[in-house]
Amino acid sequence: MDRKVRMGMVGGGEGGFIGPIHRMAAALDGEVELVAGCFSRDPGRARSSGEKFGLPADRVYSDYQQMIRTESARSNGGRMEFVAVVTPNHWHLPVSVAALEAGFHVLSDKPAACTLEEVLELKKVVEASGCLYGLTHTYAAYPLVMQAREMVQSNMLGPVRRVGVTYAQGWLAQPGDTHGSKQANWRTDPRCSGESGCFADIGTHAHHLVEYITGQWITAVCADLQTAVAGRHLDDDGAALFKLENGARGTLTASQVCGGEGNNLNISVHCELGSLFWEQETPDRLQVKRRGQADAVYRAGVDSAYLAEKVRARLRTPRGHPEGYIEAFANLYRDFAAMVRCKRDGRCIENVHAVGDIAAGVRGMAFVRGAIESSGQSAWVPLTPYWNQGGSMLSVTVAKC
Amino acid sequence: MDRKVRMGMVGGGEGGFIGPIHRMAAALDGEVELVAGCFSRDPGRARSSGEKFGLPADRVYSDYQQMIRTESARSNGGRMEFVAVVTPNHWHLPVSVAALEAGFHVLSDKPAACTLEEVLELKKVVEASGCLYGLTHTYAAYPLVMQAREMVQSNMLGPVRRVGVTYAQGWLAQPGDTHGSKQANWRTDPRCSGESGCFADIGTHAHHLVEYITGQWITAVCADLQTAVAGRHLDDDGAALFKLENGARGTLTASQVCGGEGNNLNISVHCELGSLFWEQETPDRLQVKRRGQADAVYRAGVDSAYLAEKVRARLRTPRGHPEGYIEAFANLYRDFAAMVRCKRDGRCIENVHAVGDIAAGVRGMAFVRGAIESSGQSAWVPLTPYWNQGGSMLSVTVAKC
Amino acid sequence: MDRKVRMGMVGGGEGGFIGPIHRMAAALDGEVELVAGCFSRDPGRARSSGEKFGLPADRVYSDYQQMIRTESARSNGGRMEFVAVVTPNHWHLPVSVAALEAGFHVLSDKPAACTLEEVLELKKVVEASGCLYGLTHTYAAYPLVMQAREMVQSNMLGPVRRVGVTYAQGWLAQPGDTHGSKQANWRTDPRCSGESGCFADIGTHAHHLVEYITGQWITAVCADLQTAVAGRHLDDDGAALFKLENGARGTLTASQVCGGEGNNLNISVHCELGSLFWEQETPDRLQVKRRGQADAVYRAGVDSAYLAEKVRARLRTPRGHPEGYIEAFANLYRDFAAMVRCKRDGRCIENVHAVGDIAAGVRGMAFVRGAIESSGQSAWVPLTPYWNQGGSMLSVTVAKC
Amino acid sequence: MDRKVRMGMVGGGEGGFIGPIHRMAAALDGEVELVAGCFSRDPGRARSSGEKFGLPADRVYSDYQQMIRTESARSNGGRMEFVAVVTPNHWHLPVSVAALEAGFHVLSDKPAACTLEEVLELKKVVEASGCLYGLTHTYAAYPLVMQAREMVQSNMLGPVRRVGVTYAQGWLAQPGDTHGSKQANWRTDPRCSGESGCFADIGTHAHHLVEYITGQWITAVCADLQTAVAGRHLDDDGAALFKLENGARGTLTASQVCGGEGNNLNISVHCELGSLFWEQETPDRLQVKRRGQADAVYRAGVDSAYLAEKVRARLRTPRGHPEGYIEAFANLYRDFAAMVRCKRDGRCIENVHAVGDIAAGVRGMAFVRGAIESSGQSAWVPLTPYWNQGGSMLSVTVAKC
Lengths: 401, 401, 401, 401
Known about the structure:
Four copies of one chain form a homotetramer. Chain A has helices spanning 18-28, 43-52, 64-73, 92-101, 116-129, 143-153, 182-187, 190-193, 198-214, 309-312, 325-345, 358-377, 384-388; strands at residues 5-11, 32-38, 82-86, 105-108, 133-135, 160-168, 218-226, 237-244, 249-255, 264-271, 274-279, 285-290, 295-299, 381-382. Chain A has a nine-stranded mixed β-sheet with strand order 13-12-11-10-6-9-8-7-14. The first copy, chain A, contains 13 helices and 14 strands. Chain A starts with a strand and ends in a 13-residue tail after the last helix. Chain A is an alpha/beta fold and 401 residues long. At the B-D interface, strand 6, strand 7, strand 8, strand 9 and strand 10 of B face strand 6, strand 7, strand 8, strand 9 and strand 10 of D.
């Protein structure tokens, strides 16, 4: 049977940012085929996008519900198998729910939904559907982030002491930055983004990175969010102190108003015997400082024998031939394709860590909610109660057999 | 008509290094479709490769001549339009000639052929064919290399004074490195590689990078090649002094026996008013030092407004979302696809600099020949006479109208 | 009259860390002469130290009070003019007070004293004495830190939005690190260090750096201190959220238990129009990212014409001849020597920012106190009330006329 | 007896570049005392310099011969012990000869003299004198350069294959750069500099660094020197291929016309099992790439236990407290002071590698001569014959007992 997995896409029409990224990521490894799309609610834009992306006219839609209905009616061999949700945040929930309820797997851009309540609702739908649900937390899909995870979780550096993660962008630094930018507009509009701006948009990436690398959940937060540019309705900057399960402490900063910054996401994980540093803008290096040793720089490469084997399996080129953001994103598509093939074949599903599951989505929104409440009360807020609202966080939809 | 350009591939079966790179690069932007392939001379390996790459069995071949004959017989709308030549060096000439003579465009891995004589012969075939011929000098396809070219050629840094280029690899550093490695074996075998090992394999990349950025040809060379690992039959290490058309001087080092090195290609271009530095292992940065100013680091990004517009057009992501080696390679495929579409439509062809033309191929092999002769004679060797053997180098097959 | 200023030193005997640094810093520019010393309370160690440092036997003491009495009795032309206090923290107060009350200027290692109460008491003594008092906050004395200050305070980057400062060391990461180390012992002993370990020792450096660069005081703090290594009596790790006078926010992390870290102090100052980054471990570079511009790296050098003139005046070498930690420390001695000469000559005193004054000392200890209280209460703590306990912080002892 | 060694200085009056560096370097560790000086041939400038540097008037001279005569007549306990020669190049020979013949040790700025003939003459004088002679090749005095030497010479990286050294400056990049600059004027004037400009001034540093690290002499050279800025009489730019004793190859580039460059000296040493990289502008790091291992960065620090013990002995601060150019220079003074004390005490002299001896001076000027001749003849020139002109190079004046 065909190795390729068939994808329908909702959102991501011409001219957007994240849609093309998803399409390139899906195409790179030849394991996913775009077979249907609802790229825009505007029929003309939907059509011209579909044409450009090489789809036949009868599989291009301007109404996602119609797309789901029509595709459901197709025969098994040609029907789309999963829906990539690439819309602004406020469409994540309805599109995901509709797809899941029709029996399609879902791979969604983050955040999973606009609010904690929405994502808890989504979690129930995911669990009831028996379908796969994945979140594209891109940064966890970089191979050297997985290497960091391996090193921390194998305890080779001893217990985690302190984590520092910063995600600094500058594209909303000035009042005028929201004028005439579709990207900027919906991200600063509570109707599209939900209850948080910056913390939901990029703070959740930072939150996920901490949990992914340390293998520990963030259990409490003390945050200070602000709207630095007057006139906005959501946070555009903030920072938080946090605690991990083992008692380790951390700081998380997320800001979109740091003039001159690009996409400066970096993390340091300090342990008793050594410290790790990773910067997204040079993602193929992992700096490791160990007591009594020369500093080390781990370099990505299928031939870097000192990397964990599963890390090398996520790489495509030898050391010194840099892979970047699109390749990280492609890892998510490759992983999700593997999961869909497993499901298709009735095999059990590998635990592919880098694709976020719905539980990670819940914890992300719980973190946002906790940060907002903490900031309002100037106090520490525990996060575990939020998780319990939606059932146990210990269940993971993607289980290893 | 279809935007996608149809590609047949010769070489590049499963398990090789450069074949998958070509396929990912071709797939990334959705402008090229793999429709036929002769991935191996071994029928079984050819077949399983074709299957893996999603080709129908009747378009998978184990004899490139048969592939060319059969594809020629296909109707216009489905027939492959160009041949990607991804074989070891000694097949570059026969495959390219066969394809061109049958009217197919050719996009070839470098070097164009094994020897200067071969590439001069190929040049005649290219010129007679009326077909497009392109060489995949990947490194010139990095956006910030084009930015360097723009800055140097616009004279904003004043006249070029001195160029230093080094290409250091370590994968052949030890005698045992050729055991059991297909890659290593053919590269150190004169029957497959031609008259040079390291200088033909990676020295030509360095040579092309110098000419691409400065816009000047290397006119004379004084080289010192050696076989550092005893028992080999070709150079595995060497360096050269060189001169550019304007009298500027340079050094070029190429080595595959530098223990611990990955793919360390770097270039510095020193001009009267400033100096540029680019390193392939962090390709999305271009360091610029100008007299009396703070050092600058130009960063890749579709939104980096200070980059030349045509440089930004070669990028896919905003600043801080790194693109790498595969994306650079994809630029070549995107460029070549644009050239094929132009040709297809009878439009005149844009001068897309990053795809090397046959004249660049001749100059590359002339450089190798000059280096070998210089090294043997311990003397400077002018390169212009070599070019003239094959007709004027001023003709470029890809001309702007 | 002699350009050289005469120094007596208390503490800093052979084998310590900070004593030799002070002596090299004092010697470097030939403006300070060591004329007397009480290097140890152990007479033998005091004597051998004095001999090694080239002092005549009659100016070597093992009792600081005797040194102050004896030096007071000397004639004007030869008597020491200031006392460098280089002892463990708990001696800072008594030595400084004794010196000031005897009419000697004081240049003290930080912190000014062990507790907020002590430093407020010291402040009164300083004010009553009419003598100069300086604190060696080394990091503010790096030329490019002054350049950062100039750029932020001139508003060329617009209003400050967010500051992030981290000071991570690893030398106390393991329980055994305090065994057999004099340094480590007194720093983890409340009787010698005061009420805080890490925050007093290095957190105060980070605090001072923020205020020095931004020109704003930290007005409120929300901290989370911990003793990461069981069995210690003081904090060895902590982090804080803070607010600046203009409403900007920040995070401050200070830790001595980050395995593998050396002396990793770094700061980022994000403003509306650009962001600055400085790392102490490469102190001769200042990274500047401005909206719409290539990233810039300001490089130290007397010939770096783009640096502020007063920054260049703090440098000794041309660009590319790195100055480091000792040179930064020497800037403090050069500045303090200039202040002493002014005082000596009855001239008014230049406002030399890099030498911390007693008010900076008070704010530093107020920050430590605030952090401790905040951490205990899990709440924000305003710092301004602490300042007022000791009189106005607006008075600066070193005023420009 | 006094630990301090007494120095007289010739050259280095106020306003120059290298004089203050020598004085700070001499002062830093308190092992050298400036007791006499002939800072200028202009009596007024000599006097005011002497006053500024704190010398009594009767030990300040404007005639170096008079200084040598007068100091010779002083009693043993106060007389200067060595002469630091800090003049423009053409004074190196006469001042050194006069000092040596009067029985004073000499520590000279490089090059040892203006021409090969001069330095061979000087060598005879050194050998006849029984005095110590040292050359301040500063860059070899950086601790991590010694670490590189240790690693290469201990063979832990296997045999050296290829060396690349580049010394790029920009301060003479434009015609106007020699106007009004004393530094620039004498360096481009054959009467002051000798037969070479750039290669003598900085090429000799690069040459020395190669030999110091590899422990091998450069035995043959093929060079290409040029005068890039029209109107000058000496080379201001050049490059060379070279060979080492073991057959390894290298490239050496030295240029003073690279616009925007500061003092960019960097070296790579590629061996069979690994490669080393050191850059003078971040001198406290040594990058090490070894086959099959993560890249390593060795960091300077008295507490960096992985550094060779003798390397740590050349450091003053713990890891993360950067030492720089002045400290490297101070290492030379500290070493030379130790040598003088040994000589003074009749003890035999330690082999302190970092201070260049006269044989290194000869090899340096032989390299310059060979490069000039090679460049004129476009041919390889062996260097060993030049050495033999002045006797065996195997003799070293500074021998270990």
